[in-house]
Amino acid sequence: MKKHVVLVKPFSLEDEKDSENTPPNLIQRILSLFKSVRPGSDLTNFQLPPQMNLARSQLQCYGEIVYSFDGHDLLGECSRRDKPIERLKSVVTWYISTLRPLTFGLAPYNPVIGETHHVSNGHINVLVEQISHHPPVAALHASHEKENVDVLLCQYFTPKFRGAYVEVEVKGRRVVKLLNHKETYEMNQPKLLMTFLPAMGAHWAGKIVIKCPETGLGAELQLLPDSFLSRFTGNNKRAIKGKIFESSSRKQLYEIFGHWDRTVTAKNTKTGQLEVIYKASENIAKLKTPIVKNLQEVSESESAVVWGEVSEGIMTNDWEKAREAKRDVEEKQRESLRKREASGQSWIPKHFSVARAGKDWDCVPLQPTVPRAPIVIPF
Predict the structure, then answer these.
(1) E-only strand ranges, the chain
(2) Residue 222, CA distances (Å) to 83, 101, 175 in order
(3) φ and ψ at 177, to 5 degrees?
(4) pLDDT, averaged in runs of 10, over the chain (379 residues)
(5) How many whole angstroms from its chain centre is CA 263?
(6) pLDDT recorded at residue 35
(7) CB neighbour burial string for 109-129, b if at least 16 within 10 angstroms, e if fewer
(8) Of the candidates 255, 249, 250, which has an alpha carbon nearest to the alpha carbon of residue 268?
(9) What's the rounded Cα separation, in Å, for the pair 69 and 280?
(10) Looking at residue 303, what DSSP letter applies?
(11) d(C-alpha 347, C-alpha 353), whole Å
(12) Which residues lie closer than 8 Å to 315 by C-beta, 6 or more apart?
C-alpha cells in the first residue's frame, strides 16, 4: 500500500497576521472545553477535537526549531567561530532562533508512542521520536555533518489550568555539543503561557540559562511576559534581555536586549560596542514546506504518515474525515497498548536509550550521528 505523506508549511513569522484574525467565539469555544476542569489541574491527557488542532504533530514542531530556517545556518556558525566567547554568543543566537511564534487556540497533535519525524536541511539531519505517551516525552537528535555539531533534546511538558491562563512548563535536557572544540552547552527551556483574560494570547516567558563547563562561560536570558498594554502598543511584546558572563566571577561581558521576533543586540560591556546578533526576518520568515525525496525510505512511523489523513481533513475543512482519522490513530495506539499489557511487554524506543529517575527523564541516542532523511527542505 502506498504511503500517504502529508507535509505542511512550518509556521513562519509572516503567517502570524492570519492567526491574529481569530473568530469572535474562539474564547467561548476554548473556555467551554475547560468548563469541567478545575484550576491547577494537569492537562497532559486532555483530548482536543480536530477543530482545535494544528495540522501537524508536536514532533514536527520540535523538529522545525532545528531544521526549519531561512538564510544563515546559525547552528553551523556556533562551531565556525574561533574564540570561546564568540562561540557562546553564536549559541545564544541559535537558541533565540528556536523561539517561534505560537498560534493561540490551536494545538499540535499529541504524538503516539513510537512516532518519529526525520528531516534534513542542507548539512543538518534531525530525528525525533516519541519515547513515552503517558506522560508525553519526546527525544530529538540532530547532527550537523559539516561542522560536527550535535544537538540533543529530551523534553516533556506539564500543562496546568490556572483559570485565566494555561501554564505549560517544559522540562528535560537541551544540549549542544561542538565536537570540534570539545565543548558542551547545557540549557533549559522557557515556559509557555496561554492567556484567556484580559486578552487572548500565547507567548514564551521565563528564564533561560546556558552553561559551558569547558570554557567557564555562561549566559542568562529573560523572556518577558506580554502585558495587556503591550498587545496593543507592541513596545514590550516578545521582549528579551539578558547577559553573557564568566561563570566563576559572574563578571558581565555582554548585555543582551531586543525582541526575539524582530532584532536582538549584544552590547560589549567593556567597549560599549553594539552588535546585532539576530534578525528574525532573516531566519524564521518565508520558511519552506518539506518535500519527500525518497518515498520508499519514509518510515510508517513518520509523523506525516501517521497523521496524514487527519491533516488532510483539517486543511480541507473536512471535519468528519479529520474526526474519523484521528479516532483511528488513537484506537490503533490503544490496541497496541492492550497487546503489550496482555503479553507483559514494555515499550522500547527504536532510536534512543531511556533512563528515568522519578519524574525526570533522560535519553541517549543509539547512533552517534543522524543519517540523511528521506524528507528534505528544498533549496
Answers:
(1) 53-57, 107-109, 116-121, 124-132, 137-144, 149-161, 165-178, 183-187, 191-195, 201-212, 217-223, 239-246, 252-259, 263-268, 274-279, 291-292, 352-357, 360-365, 375-376
(2) 25, 17, 19
(3) -115, 125
(4) 87 71 49 57 63 93 96 95 98 97 86 97 98 92 98 90 84 95 96 81 92 98 73 69 97 98 97 98 95 97 97 95 95 93 93 89 96 96
(5) 20
(6) 55
(7) bbbbbbbbbbbbbbbbbbbbb
(8) 255
(9) 10
(10) H
(11) 11
(12) 6, 8, 55
Residue corresponding to grid cell 540523511: 372
Supply 70's cell numbers: 531561512
Q: In angstroms, rounded to a whole number, what is the distance separating the alpha carbons of residues 314 and 291?
A: 19
A 10 A CB-CB count for 295 gives: 11
Look at residue 84 in the predicted model and tell me its pLDDT: 98
Please name which of 139, 8, 149, 14 lies closest in space to residue 73, comparing C-alpha atoms: 149
pLDDT for res 174: 95
Dump the DSSP string for 319-359: HHHHHHHHHHHHHHHHHHHHHHHHHT-----SSEEEEEETT
Q: Which residues contact 335 (CB under 8 A, 6 or more apart)?
A: none
358: number of Cβ within 10 Å = 5
Q: Please report, to the nearest 10 degrees, the dihedral formed by the alpha carbons of residues 82, 84, 90, 93 taken in order.
A: -160
Assigned C-alpha cell, 209: 540559562
